[in-house]
Write a structure and sequence with these properties.
Bound molecules: pyridoxal-5'-phosphate
CATH class of the largest domain: Alpha Beta
CATH superfamily of the largest domain: Type I PLP-dependent aspartate aminotransferase-like (Major domain)
Structural class: alpha/beta
Shape: globular
Largest sheet: 9 strands, mixed
CATH architecture of the largest domain: 3-Layer(aba) Sandwich
Number of strands: 17
Strand content: 5-15%
Number of domains: 3
């Protein structure tokens, strides 16, 4: 038998990787350039291989983004449309609180059987027993932690472990650069207070995490929503354009890895461009690093802070989604604003409780942490894939969804401008909670979108709930 042509050999190699799950559905196929370098083949061979895999249903070409992995025979949704880089709305005071409160209040009227509204994992995903043991060990080693005063910046041991762990995101810090906080939410609050005040304009992604909009509202700041792509994150070009109109932007807040709610990861060149632009324009850049560790693969993602040479990036992080939702730990490395943030933290809430910090440091400093993270990533990858497939199978034709390569959530756009709030109301009657799009913007641009959690194990019951949700969405569509 004749040997297969080179492009077919290369295609067979990647087909096997996809079938074995080495390349996950929804993840990005290595670029043509990477294939050429890795396998020493010409551009035309690399391209022919990808076209061959696409023809057989193993790859999907997405405009301006390259090839993405899929499994043949599985239904797929069209990706969410790319936003225009034109600025849609002027900077405005945020009026989200009433909307969010009313949605949460409606949710409380019904018993929730499937909470697809929260961006967090179910308790089985997290290392409860290991943390319990670490807690007992830490208390036994030093019971005086219960009765002596806490260190103002947080436990030096934990800060040391966090500084070491940050190296994989290409962040070089000493433990003295870190302040332990009550989750990322406190870190964001402190960062914004340190660099801006009431009335100031803050550039944020659109759509964005509603908790950030709540902070801006509480601090009396205005949000300038910057178009953000489900593929590439915040548009730096749109931000540059916006800055020509709004010359008084006081800070930019971005979630570069697995953005909430879109799931986007900014390519490294956009990260570098954003950091450089903020630096050149003397605008503080607040990085929210809540989900970076939850990718489909173990390859670490770079933080914006990796490109920071002048202390202009304030890095805010959380252990809530990746390790221990109940312990409410986060941290901030505030660069130029370190002293100011330390003063604010002291004034607003004093130091964090010590024992949970010691327990987390004990676990994160051990080899068990990496093994746990690997298991968590695999479990979440499976759950994401099943939820993506359920949306593609049960939701009405024309539903759009860009499969994220990590994180805890999916963002879907219903067809025909159907109202996500209507869907929320009807789903609540069935005991299914979802997060409707209007929570994620000060505008009405996302009224037809829903955010769905992938944090629950994909059981038969959840599959039935997704079928129900799809039917309710199809009824709205009519
Ligand atoms: C993007 C983003 N930032 C911050 C937070 C809040 O983090 P924490 O729970 O650590 O306070 C969340 C929680 O959902 C989030 O999604």
């Amino acid at each position: 038998m004749d040997a297969l042509p080179l492009y077919r050999q290369l295609a067979a190699h990647y087909q096997q990787a996809i079938e074995r799950g080495t390349l996950a559905p929804g993840s990005r196929m290595p670029s043509l350039r990477a294939l050429m370098d890795r396998h020493d083949v010409s551009l035309s061979t690399a391209l022919q291989s990808c076209r061959y895999l696409e023809r057989d249903g193993y790859l999907e070409a997405r405009p301006r983004s390259g090839y993405f992995v899929r499994l043949p025979g599985k239904p797929v949704c069209q990706p969410v449309a790319e936003p225009s880089t034109r600025l849609a709305d002027p900077a405005r005071y945020v009026g989200i609180q009433e909307r969010v409160t009313s949605i949460i209040a409606q949710g409380k009227q019904f018993p929730v059987r499937f909470n697809l509204a929260a961006a967090s994992g179910s308790p089985e995903l997290y290392p409860t027993e290991a943390l319990k043991q670490a807690m007992i060990r830490s208390l036994r080693n030093d019971p005086s932690v219960l009765t002596s005063s806490a260190q103002p910046l947080g436990s030096a041991v934990l800060r040391g472990v966090l500084a070491q762990r940050a190296l994989s995101a290409r962040i070089a810090l000493s433990r003295d650069d870190i302040i332990v906080t009550n989750g990322c939410i406190e870190a964001l609050n402190l960062a914004l207070r340190a660099v801006a005040q009431a009335g100031d304009v803050i550039a944020v992604e659109s759509p964005t995490y509603y908790g950030l909009l709540q902070i801006l509202e509480a601090q009396g700041m205005k949000a300038l929503e910057i178009p953000t792509s489900a593929q590439n994150g915040i548009s730096v070009e749109a931000l540059e354009l916006a800055a020509q109109t709004y010359r008084n932007i006081k800070a930019v807040v971005a979630v570069p890895n697995f953005q909430n709610p879109l799931g986007a990861v900014m390519p490294d060149d956009s990260k570098a461009r954003l950091v450089a632009w903020c630096e050149a324009n003397a605008i503080p850049l607040i990085e929210d690093d809540t989900y970076s560790l939850l990718g489909s693969t173990d390859t670490p993602l770079s933080a914006l802070k990796a490109w920071d040479r002048t202390g202009n990036v304030i890095h805010c992080a959380s252990l809530h989604k990746t390790l221990a939702p109940g312990m409410r730990l986060g941290w901030i490395s505030a660069g130029r604003w370190h002293e100011r943030v330390a003063q604010l933290k002291h004034a607003l809430s004093r130091a964090q409780e010590v024992l949970p910090q010691l327990a987390v440091a004990d676990f994160m400093g051990s080899g068990a942490y990496e093994r746990y993270l690997r298991r968590l990533r695999l479990a979440l990858r499976d759950q994401r894939e099943q939820m993506i497939e359920a949306v593609a199978t049960y939701f009405p034709a024309g539903t759009r969804l860009t499969p994220p390569q990590g994180g805890l959530i999916l963002w879907a756009e219903l067809p025909g401008g159907a109202s996500a709030e209507r869907l929320f109301e009807r789903a609540m009657c069935e005991g299914i909670a979802i997060a409707p799009g209007p929570m994620f913007s000060n505008s009405d641009r996302f009224d037809a979108c829903v955010r769905l959690s992938c944090g629950l194990p994909y059981t038969r019951e959840l599959n039935a709930a997704m079928r129900t949700l799809g039917r309710l969405a199809a009824d709205l569509d009519g």
